Amino acid sequence: MKKVRIHINEDLCKGCGICISLCPNKVFAKSEEISSKGVFLPVIIHGDKCIACRICEEHCPDLAIFIEAQDVEK
Amino acid sequence: MDQKHVHPLLVKYARIGAYKQPHCPGCGNGIVAQCMLRAIDELKLDMDKIVFASGIGCSSWIPSPLFNADVLHTTHGRSLAFATGVKLSNPELRVVVFTGDGDSAAIGGNHLIQAARKNIEILTVLVNNRIYGMTGGQVAPTTPHGVKTKTTPYGNLEYPFDLCKLVEAAGASYVARWTTFHTRQLVSSMKKGLLKKGFSFIEVISQCPVQYGTFVGIRDPAEMLHIFRKISVPFEKAKNMSREELEGKIVIGEFVDIERTGLAEAYQRLLEMMNL
Ligand SMILES: Cc1ncc(C[n+]2csc(CCOP(=O)(O)OP(=O)(O)O)c2C)c(N)n1
Ligand code: SF4
Ligand SMILES: [Mg+2]
């Protein structure tokens, strides 16, 4: 079992949507509201489905998202 | 600036105040930048012992100002000439060049060929977005045949370079091609290139959703990554495919990985022999 934390940096994200599209478990959705920086940020809609594969993190052109994962006992 | 969620690679290797990438939303250059920082981190290299050099173009903004190391942002097409000077005068330093397809296949094409022939110990990462991104989307010597750009509105009449074959023929010690979709393979190639004692060349096919995307009608960077995945063919498989079958495909993999004495090492040996 893994305890996962998804970090999104709202100042660095440019809202390109790569993380939303590449996530195999559809953890993210595009925000319906525009942020103060003029960006449609990704929002976490299924955080519990994240398996910490880090595909979003590795493909983020702005290093605006990263995953913290810890192994925990079941 | 949101200090709570700063990527660990930025904390470790980026210049404070330069965390925000200069590129357009969804541009592949940032993915390549992250891969390089990851490769350096996995090898536990000291940033103070690496010199980065780049030319002119969007891709040349990968190391500067982001990387907290010595960075030479040089003139258009000439980064390899500057990098050669750095390596020969101070062979202790690791030298990495970031360049674009316009930068090193057009104006700097001969520098690329000569650096590979000399087998100078430099890792060159060429970001091939198949266009001149920075100047507004003009056709490049890497634009696929038939593709529409700002300067080829009826489709490109010319054929693109196969840069990996060119650099292999010129004599490089390590040659590989990946796309911005293949981040793990790219990191592994970068690690090999960083340790290689000869000329290393990695071509990264990358998305330019703004200048390339507008003319080909794909503005979504994620869609471009999905296309890269679909049209990529591993080198081993491509060997058994005909020219027609490979039309519109991207051949990925490691093409060359050999050991041959590099120029800087040979030059050092010569100096020692002459007691200089
Ligand atoms: C000597 C010289 N000629 C032309 C230019 C204009 N110029 C700037 S960037 C560029 C092309 C860059 O293309 P590429 O290397 O593919 O970089 P990209 O922006 O696509 O990453 C050109 C022609 C220049 N800056 N200097
Ligand atoms: S113009 Fe293209 S290559 Fe240049 S920063 Fe924008 S998306 Fe990237
Ligand atoms: Mg280019």
Write up what this structure looks like.
- The complex is a heterodimer of chains A (74) and B (276).
- Chain A has two helices and four strands, in the order βαββαβ.
- Chain A is α+β, with helices and mostly antiparallel strands and 74 residues long.
- The longest helix of chain A has 5 residues.
- Chain B is of the alpha/beta class and 276 residues long.
- Chain B has one domain: Rossmann fold, CATH 3.40.50.
- Chain B contains eleven helices and eight strands.
- In chain B, strands 2-1-3-4-6-5-8-7 form an eight-stranded mixed β-sheet, with helices on both faces.
- In chain B, strand 5, helix 7 and strand 6 form a beta-alpha-beta unit.
- Chain B is globular, with a radius of gyration of 18 Å.
- The model of chain B has no long low-confidence stretch (mean pLDDT 97).
- The interface between A and B is medium-sized, with 25 and 36 residues.
- Bound molecules: thiamine diphosphate (TPP), iron/sulfur cluster (SF4) and magnesium ion.
In brief, what are we looking at here?
Chain A is an alpha+beta fold and 74 residues long. In chain A, 12% of the residues lie in helices and 27% in strands. Chain A has a single domain (2-71), classed as 2-Layer Sandwich (Alpha-Beta Plaits).
